[in-house]
Design a protein that fits this description.
The chain has a two-stranded antiparallel sheet. Helices cover 69% and strands 2% of the residues. Helix 1 runs antiparallel to helix 2. The longest helix has 32 residues. It is flat, with a radius of gyration of 23 Å. It is mainly alpha-helical.
């Protein structure tokens, strides 16, 4: 059973919201570290910066890299607190597992980042090892954002006494998995494309195309051809998935809003990607393109969570019609965990978040 700690749930919900937004900013700043060539700003030292805890008389590249390390460390603190506060939830619940996943992926994010520095996969290094590390970094980042998003949704439902989030199979389970997998794949290829744009800058669109199709070109340049093509295919698929999700739950107004937001973000991202290509990927536009991709990924996760992760609609309706405090009549509606209500503070807490 979930312990009745409405203050803890409120604080957990607020913290996960803040941590999600903070991580978005840290991810974008990390991309700026790459585009500015500041990845070697602290040398090959980690966790120290040029052998010092706090660098003295740092250069600009050092300040950029050191700022990223400090903010990344703050993310780790937030993740540890979220995992600790998540103990208020029932063992095995989505809220509890999600809070632990946040800590797990934050730790792996830090380890991958450390590996980039210690192995010298920074600055102008074009090695295969760096490409693999960047791919793992992007995949882990998306999984971290997904964990934060699901945990925030579960904490919200717990805080406001909504039906507990439980994973339910759907006729669109395969489509959901495919959508998430394709988005992850296109994101990884996008990260490699951005790396190629940073390492091998073109002075004109014609030169950029010539680099892409030159037989002796670096493999990162050859990958740039696939990213826009896969992005368009992904966009078409996400439009289809959004429509099918609404058809699956035609009376779910929240899902309809999320589906509309998903399609709007897809359209905007495709336009943004086209502009980024034509303008030869300037730093500011690269960062905005990445940020939009993060919002698109979060929106997709929310669509999947809304489609698969809500408590039974009949349960929600039954609980909403019961007087406070909730009586054992809740068990007569459906055989799901009992819910509790605290009329003193107006907050209701579900027992199996």
């Amino acid at each position: 059973m979930l312990q009745r700690k409405p203050n803890t749930l409120r604080n957990l919900h607020i913290l996960t919201q803040f941590a999600l937004l903070f991580n978005l900013a840290v991810i974008v700043w990390g991309a700026y570290v790459r585009t500015s060539g500041s990845g070697a700003g602290c040398g090959s030292h980690w966790p120290l910066c040029n052998g010092e805890v706090i660098p003295r008389s740092p250069e600009l590249a050092t300040m950029i890299e050191f700022t990223h390390r400090i903010t990344s460390g703050m993310c780790l603190i937030f993740a540890a607190v979220i995992a600790w506060m998540g103990r208020v939830a029932t063992q095995g619940s989505i809220l509890r597992r999600g809070s632990r996943a946040v800590l797990l992926f934050t730790l792996s994010e830090a380890l991958i980042g450390a590996g980039l520095v210690l192995f010298g996969y920074v600055a102008l290094d074009p090695s295969l090892g760096r490409a693999i590390s960047i791919s793992l970094h992007l995949a882990n980042t998306f999984l971290l954002l997904a964990s934060l998003t699901v945990t925030e949704r579960a904490a919200h439902q717990a805080r406001f006494g909504e039906a507990a989030m439980t994973w339910k199979k759907s006729g669109l389970s395969k489509l959901s998995t495919t959508a998430l997998g394709l988005m992850l794949l296109v994101g990884v290829i996008g990260a490699l494309t951005a790396l190629g744009d940073t390492l091998f800058k073109a002075t004109s669109l014609a030169q950029g195309f010539a680099q892409d199709f030159e037989p002796s070109s670096h493999y990162l340049l050859k990958l740039r051809v696939f990213h826009p093509l896969l992005a368009v295919l992904l966009g078409v698929f996400l439009f289809y998935f959004g429509d099918k999700a609404v058809e699956e739950r035609p009376h779910d107004t929240k899902l309809a809003r999320l589906s509309f937001s998903l399609k709007a973000l897809v359209a905007f991202q495709l336009v943004l990607g086209t502009v980024n290509l034509v303008w030869l990927a300037p730093t500011g536009l690269q960062l905005f393109h990445l940020l939009t991709a993060e919002f698109l990924w979060i929106c997709l996760v929310m669509v999947v969570a809304q489609l698969h992760g809500l408590g039974d609609e009949k349960t929600q309706e039954c609980v909403a019609n019961l007087p406070n405090p909730l009586t054992t009549a809740a068990s007569a509606c459906v055989s799901l965990p009992e819910s509790a209500s605290n009329p003193a503070d107006g907050s209701r807490v579900s027992s199996s978040i």
